[in-house]
Design goal:
With 183 residues, the protein is mainly beta. It contains no helices and twelve strands.
């Protein structure tokens, strides 16, 4: 899918107005264009895979005469990676278990560090996260009896350190477990 969007009357902060006057204006504009592609496939009856990729070019086109580190004519919109992708696979094994995993990539992107004054535009590096999941049937559902499965999921398997936003760390490794009842 190719997309091309234009945004106008975006809200921007105007810190130069006298006290008591509105500090936000609907005057800025931006555009976002790019391509999204994805594919899903099956290998036999027990394994499936999917992949997707997004290329994004998002820029400010009118800063309403109030350029800032976070929004200025011709600059990339903050927190919008130029490239992102995911590859995932899931399969049924041993007739009682389903195993799956994914790799998610988020490319480098601009952000603003508001810890200094004036704020400074910075570039956050790209990162990749690996997640795994599994489900094991403990009891098959049958006539008059429920089914029971045990579930485990590991997010950010290798505990990758990254910031989604300047100063806000991404989620560390998380291990989750649970059960699924079927009637």
């Amino acid at each position: 899918t190719y997309f091309h969007q234009r945004f106008r009357d975006m809200i921007v902060y105007d810190g130069s107005v006298p006290s008591g006057e509105p500090t936000y204006r609907n005057r800025a504009a931006a555009r976002a264009r790019g391509v999204e592609a994805g594919v899903t496939t099956s290998f036999g009856t027990s394994v499936s895979a999917k992949a997707w990729y997004t290329y994004l070019d998002a820029k400010a086109t009118d800063d309403a005469g109030m350029p800032s580190a976070s929004f200025a004519n011709g600059q990339s919109l903050i927190r919008r990676p130029g490239h992102s992708a995911e590859l995932a696979a899931q399969g049924r094994v041993f007739e009682r278990a389903t195993l799956g995993g994914s790799i998610t990539y988020v490319g480098r992107r601009d952000d603003v560090d508001f810890n200094s004054f004036p704020s400074v535009r910075v570039e956050l590096p790209g990162y990749a996260i690996i997640d795994l999941a599994g489900e094991v049937d403990l009891l098959h559902p049958g006539a008059g009896r429920p089914g029971l499965s045990g579930i485990v999921r590991v997010e950010n398997l290798f505990d990758k350190q990254y910031d989604q936003v300047v100063g806000f760390a991404g989620r560390p490794r998380g291990v989750y477990g649970g059960a699924r009842f079927r009637f």
